[in-house]
Amino acid sequence: MRLVIIGAGFAGMYAALSAARLRDIQGVSPEKLEIALVAPEPTLVVRPRLYEPKPETLTAPLQDVLKAIDVIYVQGSAETIDTRTRVIDIAAAKGVKKQLPYDRLVVATGSRLFRPNIPGLAEHGFSVDQLDDAIALDRHLHGLASRPASKARDTVVVAGGGFTGIEAATEIPSRLREILGKEAKPRVVIVDRNQAIAPDMGAGPRPIIEDALRKLEVETRLGAGVTSLDKSGVTLSTGEHIESATVIWAAGMRAAPLTAQIPAERDNFGRLLVDRELRVLSVDGVFATGDAARAPCDDDGNYALMSCQHATRMGAFAGNNAAAELLGVPIKPYHQKAYVTCLDLGEAGALFTRGWERKVEMVGETAKKTKQEINTVWIYPPRAERAAALASADPERVTDL
Asked: Residues 379, 44: contact at Cβ < 8 Å?
């Protein structure tokens, strides 16, 4: 029997850990139940931190962890999935193609930034979405030091006033002062079509976010969108033109395109619709998890978000359940009632909320310490020691905040 997991992000990593954990509990050998993880590199990109400086350091190796739990790593990118024959076509290194049959499949391919067809966006826009994007932005910011001072050089526009946009915008002032000198006065402008900043955070946390933006002198242009970009900057739907050499796009996510290979219904974000056990509806043998799945996480009508917090726990349930079906043991309905947010606010600290109603629990430096612990400890892979790695993936305990 073979269980294949596509993706080495948070959901894919925990799917592998959890499937191996159940196999170990059931006393089944790796030869009887083979678990394989397919990804271009055996590396976890610590994506929630890509708004920070030195993004090239924000990865964690997975090879030793996978070896410790007897999970086979298959290097390559899944190109096509035939759910009828249960075969995956993989593009490996140097143009080599190979096929990998499966008995159960876990789609954990994550998400990508949605880039609309705005004139100049592809040519002049930056992002903190993927590792290569964040590295390109970091190199660009360092390159500003070789340019003469000007409004455009010292101005950064962030398109998107949600979680990612706010974290990127509030980190930029200190990053630019580090690069341009302590006397530099960077200008940062957040542009968002909504009438309020951080629309998904709700009214409770908003005054704290607004106060942090004021302290950092981050401007906002609300109720406005970006209509075009060029070398000189951005033009907004209001007609305003902002001179800027750096435009960071942070407006919207979509499930990775591979979900389209599964003949099943998807939501407006491209996520596969799944049941409470994370099985893809109407397609036998396929599970979806993390940002690739639209999953109910309680009985109150809440659905998992495209976040590391949800991806880790969803991955653990998906891996467990895919292995459970093959081993003929009971599966576990995914549930995640605990939900917190921890929003980095740069030099203004951070904001920690609990529950879907976003009740504020911590602010400022206290919340900042929690954010740093989350970013540097909690979301990293377990150590490459078999017992510890398997113990970390109990679905009922993963991300149980």
From this structure: no
